[in-house]
Amino acid sequence: TVGLQELVEQQQRDLERTKEKIGAPKFRFKNEYQEDLASFFLETDDAIITENNEVTLYVSGEDKFAKLKADIEQAKHHIHLQYYIFNDDTIGHEIMDLLIEKVREGIEVLVIYDALGARTTRQGFWKKLHDAGGHTVAFFGYSLGFINWRINYRNHRKIVVIDGKIGYVGGFNIGDEYLGKGKLGYWRDTHLRIVGDAVYSLQSRFFIDWNAAVHGEKRREFIPEYFPVVESLGQNMIQVVSTGPDASLQKIKLGLIKMISMAKKSVWIQTPYFIPDESVQEALSIAALSGVDVRIMIPSKPDHPIVYRATEFYASQIIQSGVKVYVYQNGFLHAKTMIVDGELVTVGTSNFDMRSFEINYEINSIFYNEEISQSIRNQFYKDLDFCEEIKEENLKETVFWRKIRNSLFRVVSPLM
């Protein structure tokens, strides 16, 4: 087997040979801009380039959870789950019952949940899995009674790996609200099911987080059984990129800026929270002022009121540079996607806000194929049917007190 660093260095050499037009191209990039982006993520995150990947897109909780449960039922060796939120409600119990059943069959089950995100989930919920032989761990759990000195650092990743062959990543957590059964109504999100070599990257990230959160015999080694050869008929080229406060570079943010700066025709973004720092805001403004069709879609209702008011403030600011902002009216928009020129896409857990860029632990997938890009683009068009565009003249009509309120919320929103 080839080590990760050896593979990264080999792919860097392959990209360099492609740029210098030495031999046949190793990877099927459409242009040199995509090659530059892939090289950037190789350099900053050791994000290996994978090619034989089948990808299924899910935009509704019912479809995503139905397939996830079916995959769990078919597991033969291991089930690894990592979610920011794992509620002990109806869907939470359905997933938990399946996990307990698989543990009793001799399947390894490991679960990571965020201590803050899953704070309302009772310990008795996890105990049932422990008693059956499964293992769970709270990422950055409480170390001194009710005191958690690291509560501001949240593991916002959502990863599932089954038998090392099937992977899930995207915006859905585990909870009834993600099935549209909460106060926000219909929940519009984006999630991916991947079969192929990109699952190795999801598995590696899961183990890095798992080993960081547990001690002793619960740690896991990177053994071949967790990284089997995967047969896939897919042709999707993917890089999986992670970021967090433990890294010196804000890798996802810098990658997004690079993608925006590469755009020749369009940049379309969906995000529930739009709280960019100055560098991201400037990149979007420069693109729009250069004639690029920049569109940002945000929800019409808040799940976090203070953060939403800050989103309104930044939306009003960015419109003045020619960016089009659309407000989604059909429930709650939680999708985290960006499409560049209709051929380059990122989907993952990172919002377009300072918390995701600087403080949270996040994970995104980068796609270099028109097939998945077209699917995400078509969904964006469908979502536009449920949107209202915010016009600059509408902002002028906004009452003074509301402008002051949103400006004040902008100050505290990065902490929320």
Topology:
Blueprint: H1 4-19, H2 32-45, E1 53-58, H3 61-73, E2 78-83, H4 90-104, E3 108-114, H5 123-132, E4 135-139, E5 159-162, E6 166-170, E7 187-188, E8 191-196, H6 198-213, E9 238-243, H7 251-262, E10 266-270, E11 274-275, H8 278-289, E12 293-299, H9 305-319, E13 324-328, E14 332-333, E15 337-340, E16 344-348, E17 352-353, H10 354-358, E18 362-367, H11 370-384, E19 387-390, H12 392-396, H13 400-412
Parallel strand pairs: 2-3, 3-4, 7-14, 10-12, 11-17, 12-13
Antiparallel strand pairs: 1-8, 2-5, 5-6, 6-8, 9-18, 10-15, 13-19, 15-16, 16-18
Helix pairs in contact: 1-2, 2-7, 3-4, 4-5, 7-8, 9-13
What does this structure look like?
- It is a single chain.
- This protein has 416 residues and is an alpha/beta fold.
- Helices cover 39% and strands 21% of the residues.
- It contains 13 helices and 19 strands.
- The chain has helices at residues 4-19, 32-45, 61-73, 90-104, 123-132, 198-213, 251-262, 278-289, 305-319, 354-358, 370-384, 392-396, 400-412, and strands at 53-58, 78-83, 108-114, 135-139, 159-162, 166-170, 187-188, 191-196, 238-243, 266-270, 274-275, 293-299, 324-328, 332-333, 337-340, 344-348, 352-353, 362-367, 387-390.
- It has an eight-stranded mixed beta sheet, sandwiched between helices. A seven-stranded mixed beta sheet has the order 1-8-6-5-2-3-4, sandwiched between helices. A two-stranded parallel sheet has the order 7-14.
- Strand 5 and strand 6 form a beta hairpin.
- It is globular and about 60 Å long.
